[in-house]
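I would like you to sit down with the record closing this message with an eye to the fold:
=====
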Amino acid sequence: MEKSKTKLEIYEGDPFGSACCGPGPRITSLEAAEKLRQMLTERNRTVEKLSKEFHNVIQIEREIISQKRHDYPDYVRKTMVEDKPLPYIFINGEAVSIGKFPTYEEFVTLLKPFVQKP
C-alpha cells in the first residue's frame, strides 16, 4: 500500500494587487517591477525545486487568495479572518509559516517532521 503524500499548501497574495490589466497600483517604477519579477521568479524556482526533490512524498497546492472566494478550508478562512499577513504555508492543514515565503532550505526544514526524503 502506498503511503499517502504530505500536503503542502501555499496561499499567496495577488502580486498585481487585483488589477485587471497590468501590474496594479503597487508597481510605481521599473525598479519595483523588476523587484516583483525577481521575487515571483525565485518563489517559482523554490516550488519547482521542492516538487522535483520531494515528488514522491509531497503534494503541493499553490493558490492566490481572493476575497471573492469562500470555499477555502476552515483553517485558511480562520487565518484570513484573523487578518494574518500573507503568504500562508500549511503542511497537512497545520500552519507552519505565516507572513513570509520560506526559502528552499527553510521549506526543507519545515517539511522534515512530516516526510522522509526519498
